[in-house]
Write a structure and sequence with these properties.
By secondary structure, this protein is an all-alpha fold. Helix content is about 80%, strand content about 0%. The longest helix is centred in the last third of the chain and has 35 residues, at about 175-210.
């Protein structure tokens, strides 16, 4: 992309649009993770080795990939893209915790999925910050980065979880090695595939948004409706599981 196009993109991407994107993507992560938790609870016989925490990480890394694709040339903030990426997992966690508080649910038996969201978000943000613009160079590199983020998240999730908030899921493993081999590698593969898929989706969305094919009124209205839908969905799933 030449200098003229980059300047044009800077002019079209406003801080309010960045904030909206962070809230939408974070809310979507929260909704999809709750959907995954409840779906897995319903179909316990599904032959999937990875756990719902792994699904939450994979989905979230894919959603963060959308942000990387949309804001690939973002330089209007002091820290650029990492600030956007860091906001997404925190919104995902906040959306779920706020609804738990509103519904006055005191049980935090499912705290580990929140940790999974946090570690997944931090891992990918760190990797993207280190790789820099090379992240846009090839599908293989993005898949590798997503896999590494999922793998690191799995490792940290186990170590921290087993020390601070051990649950039957983590305690079912004899050691970290058995967890990584049977589950962590699955998390890694899912994260790699979904990160690149999210990135390609984000680049496609950017072409639509930057060229002003979407009118501002429609864009903001659709954004508000999507946020409301995500939060309503999270509320429904949290309430039904309580």
């Amino acid at each position: 992309m030449n200098k003229e196009n980059i300047i044009s993109n800077k002019r079209r991407i406003r801080p309010i649009d960045i904030m909206i994107a962070i809230i939408i993507l974070g809310s979507l992560w929260g909704f999809l993770s709750e959907l995954a938790l409840n779906t897995m609870a319903i179909i316990k016989g599904l032959p999937y080795k990875g756990g719902t925490a792994g699904i939450s990480i994979g989905l979230g890394i894919g959603i963060m990939g959308i942000a990387v694709g949309i804001f690939r040339n973002l330089s209007i903030l002091p820290k650029g893209l990492p600030i956007v990426l860091l906001g997404i997992p925190f919104i995902a966690i906040l959306s779920k915790l706020l609804i738990i508080t509103i519904l006055d649910i005191t049980s935090f038996g499912k705290i580990n999925p929140y940790l999974a969201i946090l570690w997944g978000g931090l891992s990918l943000t760190g990797i993207v910050s280190i790789i820099g613009n090379k992240i846009h160079s090839s599908n293989l590199l993005r898949i590798t980065c997503g896999m590494l983020a999922g793998f690191l998240a799995a490792g940290v999730f186990y170590v921290v979880g087993i020390q601070i908030m051990p649950c039957p899921y983590l305690l079912s493993f004899n050691n970290m090695g058995s967890f990584i081999i049977s589950h962590g590698l699955v998390w890694s593969l899912i994260s790699g595939i979904l990160f690149n898929t999210g990135y390609l989706t984000g680049t496609a969305l950017k072409k639509i948004l930057v060229k002003d094919r979407v009118k501002p009124l429609f864009y903001y209205t659709a954004s508000i409706l999507l946020m409301i839908s995500c939060w309503a969905g999270i509320t429904f799933f949290v309430a039904s599981a309580s």
